[in-house]
Prior knowledge:
mainly alpha, Lysozyme, Membrane-bound Lytic Murein Transglycosylase D, Chain A, two-stranded antiparallel ribbon, two-stranded antiparallel sheet, 18 helices, 8 strands, elongated, disordered N terminus, disordered C terminus, Transglycosylase_SLT_dom_1, signal, Transglyc_AS, Transglycosylase SLT domain-containing protein
Amino acid sequence: MTYRTTRQWTLTLAGGIALIGALSATSPTLLASPHPGATPTQPTHHFWDDLNLKPLPGDVWERLRDNLEWHDRRHVARVQEWIDHYRANPGNIVEIIERARPWMAWITEQVERRGLPGEIGLIPFVESSYDPLARSHRGAAGLWQFMPGTADALGLPRHHGYDARLDVIASTQAALDYIELQAEQWYEGDIELSLAAYNAGAGTVNRARHAAAARGEPSDYWHLQLPGETMNYLPKLNAIAAIIDDPEAHGVTLPEIDDAPAFAKVPITAPISLSQLANVAGVNQSELAALNPALTHGSANPATVDVVLVPIEQEQAILAELSSPSSRPAPRDGAQYLVQRGDSLSAIANRHGISVAELRRHNGLDGDVIHAGQQLDIPHRSLAAR
Length: 386
């Protein structure tokens, strides 16, 4: 089946081809997942800016099944081999789905909005086992496995404690944009060839197509001779789709995914660490880190992000606590403190019952100059009292 996109691109035709050409010139190990409209001068786009925090209508699984299109591929021998493989390890599928729980409904909705085959929303199963923090030995990161050089070229920044490759919304939009653009410009709307190029690089796929044509053979994905990983790429994707489409027939029990949001946005007006926020929320810091995978330094700064995601049941309490500087929680003994706007070394020392000299000595400071976003070690009170 060939998909023909009806998307109206914001780039000019020449600009789109130039972008694809630039990426195809990179190493095949770079996953080409650019955002065609992104430039280094544009404002950073964060996954929480667009995250739909309202309950989505209907059931996530039914919604996904309604959008699956490649049913005929499940009869291909290569797909059947992977169906058998996954059926022999049903726990793997369930484990990945549990990891996908916060993001699956949103990604499914984005794929649906574009009119793409629902199978596209399952690509993170193959790429990263749906782990936003996944990193390959080659240096790729995130759900869609962007390489650093690719991310830099595509305007997905890595700075100030923020890695856009781990930004679920930014990376998803980039991947879907490129898959569509590449299919439209090079493969006459053939999404399967575009996915093969996403995995192996366009140069590898195009050489395989030319070789097939020279042999008088079809040049669609299923007839090409490609590297082993790419030969298995779409079979894996279709096998997972088949199991999700009819889990009972494949001996798999899918966990329910609640459409209601498990998190809410909390605006950030001053730098704050996730450990401080966890203290306020009464939740584990690892839970907040899981909801905010792009915050690589464990802190949020309004210079980089506007909001963080928190468990929805703690939303009101956290908003109340963060509404005034006086309500900011003090770090525990021996903890770290993220300097806020308007803080002074003496005020921080007084807040924690220690001397300025002790705070300077503990952090190797020569004077009293500090800046917002700076991390200070707070000495244990018993040590400070000596």
